[in-house]
């Protein structure tokens, strides 16, 4: 068999222009703009997020308010910009958290095998039975509303997906000649697993994890929409839709539609980026 | 709970009676397989119930304080909560009492309604089930059609259009779908009601049209994509070519040779669907003001009614595990090859 290059090498070689790279660039630009806007919200937003303008309540787009105002006369563009902070931070933490937990547990199950594998497999099976949103709702019921409890719960809920993938990759990697070579050279199992095997599977796992970002964003926004996530007056996209719900019946669609469109745009952008990354790194032909 | 396990037993009997060959033979391997699946089901349910029950112990501090958050801790209330949860008993005994009650459909008393949890949940269950069933039908019809149409036109314009359509839909979370549908088809055009479930069967169906569409969106994508890739895989198989070259009609080939073989993955996905629909219905029910168990769950979290939260979480998880076990067990009936493969292992 011809030795295949390590996964890291594959990833490094990949970033060449490809078909569909234009949508990828657009998606990266969209996400970068959103991230910068969120980071520099005080400079980007035309108004403070909770500034009331009583002369323009439920107003349409105008020179003063580009996206119009909500039922309290707050500028929608400003709230959107500030809301991007919690909208992006939550999923980012969940993706990082679930990747760390899942990768370590997957490594343990795939590397050690045997009892570790059997027990962890059973634990993952149980966690698969808890949809992430349900686990997040349970966490809120226990620890109270806000961003922290749902983020921890979702990190746990998404970890089994990461772990299952890591486990499969590690099992395949374990039989590769380089692992045997390190063993013969007298290196310990922990060293090989953590310093040699883990870095090799990390790119694929990381790329697959970015695909979770969009789902998590939608679910966390959904949780705020239910009134269980980020609490007003903190501007948050889901909470904005929740607050704007009463206005919809009165025909004031904009305060609800604006944050909804923002959610959809970010989810689309993140999914395009995630799929392109997995394609480049070779995640598409995974088990 | 009792009802669920008997459903499984019936399904198991049927699957066992059908046997791995699907020819009505009773085989030891089939029975062993079903028994193994049932064992796995019970173990998963047991572990899930541990998680749901003991999650309360993760909250630091006094359980009475936790359970009576936001309520007046009067001596009577404290006494009632202590008695209801058996807080003076050791934890494992509290758990056994809870499970024993749950198996009889007794989940204790709701703190906000001063009624049995089972009664409160039971009143709300029909709306959610109706919503899930309507949504499931929509998903089956639209998802399967989209997937089949795309697969049969693979690489052509119709395939691309369907794929783009599915990709766009996949980015629409149910709360976004809900508010868009309410805005366009309820408020602006006035074709559908914005709120509530209405009176009588016909009116309820009418009230649930928009909610079931909002709920179906994400899952249509899932079923559509799986159907397409599964069909495409089967269409490329040799046996399909053989069937075609034998002069069978295209419709027959697709129905008997392609679709039947493509059903496996589609069925597996539908198992995931059930829990997904039940959970996503929290959002849709909140958006459309429906009195189902989803909105009850949210309301109970909001009003710190933990017994109801516990019961609904356990109900959803049980539904997920049981449905998946049934699908697992029924798979050889639909696809005899999977049983043959399992027996050979």
From TrEMBL, chain A:
UniProt family annotation: Belongs to the binding-protein-dependent transport system permease family.
InterPro entries attached to this UniProt entry: BP-dependent_transpt_permease, MetI-like, MetI-like_sf, OppC_N
Keywords: Cell membrane, Membrane, Transmembrane, Transmembrane helix, Transport
Domain of life: Bacteria
Compartment(s) where it occurs, according to its Swiss-Prot or TrEMBL record: Cell membrane
Residues spanning the membrane: 23-45, 88-111, 123-141, 147-166, 178-198, 210-230, 251-273
Identification of the protein by name: ABC transporter permease subunit
Record domain ABC transmembrane type-1: where: 88-274
UniProt topology in membrane: Multi-pass membrane protein
TrEMBL record, chain B:
A matching Pfam family: BPD_transp_1
Keywords, ordered alphabetically: Cell membrane, Membrane, Transmembrane, Transmembrane helix, Transport
Record domain ABC transmembrane type-1: where: 125-327
Protein's membrane topology: Multi-pass membrane protein
Location of the protein in the cell: Cell membrane
Transmembrane segments: 38-59, 129-151, 163-185, 205-224, 262-288, 308-327
Chief place of localization: membrane
Sections of the chain in a coiled coil: none
Family membership noted in the UniProt record: Belongs to the binding-protein-dependent transport system permease family.
Name of the molecule in the record: ABC transporter permease
């Amino acid at each position: 068999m011809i030795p295949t290059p390590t996964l890291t090498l594959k990833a490094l070689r990949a970033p060449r222009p490809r078909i569909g790279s234009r949508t990828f660039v657009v998606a990266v630009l969209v996400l970068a703009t959103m991230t910068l806007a969120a980071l520099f919200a005080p400079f980007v937003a035309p108004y403070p997020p909770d500034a009331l303008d009583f002369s323009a309540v439920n107003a349409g787009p105008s020179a003063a308010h580009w996206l119009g105002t909500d039922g309290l006369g707050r500028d929608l563009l400003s709230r959107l910009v500030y809301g991007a902070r919690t909208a992006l931070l939550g999923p980012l933490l969940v993706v990082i958290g679930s990747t760390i937990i899942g990768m370590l547990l997957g490594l343990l199950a795939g590397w050690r095998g045997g009892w570790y594998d059997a027990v962890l497999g059973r634990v993952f099976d149980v966690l698969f039975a808890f949809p992430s949103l349900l686990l997040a709702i349970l966490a809120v019921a226990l620890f109270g509303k806000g961003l922290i409890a749902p983020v921890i719960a979702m990190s746990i809920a998404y970890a089994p997906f990461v772990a299952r993938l890591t486990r499969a990759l590690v099992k395949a990697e374990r039989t590769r000649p380089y692992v045997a070579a390190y063993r013969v050279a007298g290196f310990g199992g922990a060293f090989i697993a953590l310093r040699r095997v883990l870095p090799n599977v990390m790119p694929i796992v990381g790329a697959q994890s970015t695909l979770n970002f969009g789902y998590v964003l939608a679910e966390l926004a959904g949780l705020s929409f239910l009134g269980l996530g980020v609490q007003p007056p903190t501007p948050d996209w889901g909470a904005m839709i929740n607050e704007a719900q009463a206005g919809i019946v009165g025909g004031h669609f904009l305060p609800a539609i604006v944050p909804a469109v923002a959610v959809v745009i970010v989810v689309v952008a993140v999914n395009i980026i995630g799929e392109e990354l997995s394609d480049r790194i070779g995640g598409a032909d995974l088990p | 709970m009792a009802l669920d396990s008997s459903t499984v037993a019936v399904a198991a009997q049927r699957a066992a009676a059908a046997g791995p060959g699907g020819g009505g033979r009773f085989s030891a391997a089939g029975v062993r397989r079903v028994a193994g699946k049932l064992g796995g089901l019970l173990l998963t349910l047991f572990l899930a119930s541990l998680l749901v029950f003991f999650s309360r112990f993760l909250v630091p501090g006094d359980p009475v304080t936790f359970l009576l958050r936001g309520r007046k801790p009067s001596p009577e209330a404290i006494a009632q909560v202590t008695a209801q949860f058996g807080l003076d008993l050791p934890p494992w005994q509290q758990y056994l009492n809870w499970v024993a009650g749950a198996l009889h459909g007794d989940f204790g008393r709701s703190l906000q309604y001063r009624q049995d949890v089972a009664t409160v949940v039971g009143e709300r269950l029909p709306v959610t089930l109706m919503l899930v069933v309507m949504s499931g039908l929509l998903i089956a019809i639209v998802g399967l059609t989209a997937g089949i149409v795309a697969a049969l036109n693979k690489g052509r314009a119709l395939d691309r259009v369907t794929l783009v359509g599915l990709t766009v839909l996949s980015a629409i979370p149910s709360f976004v779908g809900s508010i868009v549908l309410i805005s366009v088809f309820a408020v602006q055009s006035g074709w559908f009601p914005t709120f509530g479930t209405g009176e009588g069967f016909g009116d309820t169906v009418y009230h649930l049209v928009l909610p079931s569409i909002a709920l179906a969106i994400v899952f249509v994508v899932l079923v559509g994509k799986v159907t397409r890739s599964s069909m495409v895989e089967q269409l490329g198989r040799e046996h399909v070519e053989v069937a075609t070259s034998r002069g069978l009609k295209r419709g027959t080939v697709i129905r008997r040779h392609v679709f039947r073989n493509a059903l496996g993955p589609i069925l597996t996905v539908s198992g995931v669907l059930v829990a997904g629909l039940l959970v996503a219905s929290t959002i849709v029910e909140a958006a459309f003001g429906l009195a189902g168990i989803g909105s009850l769950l949210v309301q109970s979290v909001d009003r710190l009614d933990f017994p109801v939260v516990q019961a609904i979480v356990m109900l959803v998880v049980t539904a997920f595990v049981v449905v998946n076990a049934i699908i697992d067990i029924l798979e050889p009936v639909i696809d005899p090859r999977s049983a043959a493969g399992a027996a050979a292992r």
